[in-house]
Amino acid sequence: MKLLLDTHIILWALNDNPKLSNKARTLIMDEQNEIYYSSASIWETTIKYMSKPDKIRINGSKLSDLCQEMGYQMLPITDKHIKALETLVFHNQNQIHNDPFDRIMIAQAKAEYLKFITHDSKIPFYKESCIVPV
């Protein structure tokens, strides 16, 4: 299976954080699975690090290096992903979801037939078959 990891899942996996669920850990550790990280995760981490270096302890460059050391494959953002982004619909009348990084990663997973691994409780409201809540 081909997996695209949400940014927080990457960070938890790299730090062996107890917040990483057993389900996510099993999927990531399964040698049969191919693990991808989005250039959007690097971008997101860079922006958060630059605005709050006291809270975010890793910059985007370091995150990218660590992902590559782990054997994760980088997935750049392409026009194909932008087109898939235009098809996403958020199905919750009571909430909104304004995270552009999440949306582009969902679109990438959808367009590339990857499973998007996330712990974000809002993301399943997109009702895309590529989303795997963990």
Mean pLDDT: 95
Helical amount among residues, as a percent range? Answer: 40-55%
Task: Kindly report the CATH topology.
Answer: Rossmann fold
CATH architecture: 3-Layer(aba) Sandwich
Overall strand count: 5
Q: How would you characterize the largest beta sheet?
A: 5 strands, parallel
Strand percentage, roughly?
Answer: 5-15%
What does this structure look like?
This protein has 134 residues and is of the alpha/beta class. It has a single domain (2-133), classed as Rossmann fold, CATH 3.40.50. The chain has helices at 7-15, 22-29, 39-51, 60-69, 79-85, 100-112; strands spanning 2-5, 34-38, 73-75, 115-118, 131-133. The protein has a 5-stranded parallel sheet, with helices on both faces. The longest helix is centred in the middle third of the chain and has 13 residues, at 39-51. The chain is globular. The mean pLDDT is 95.
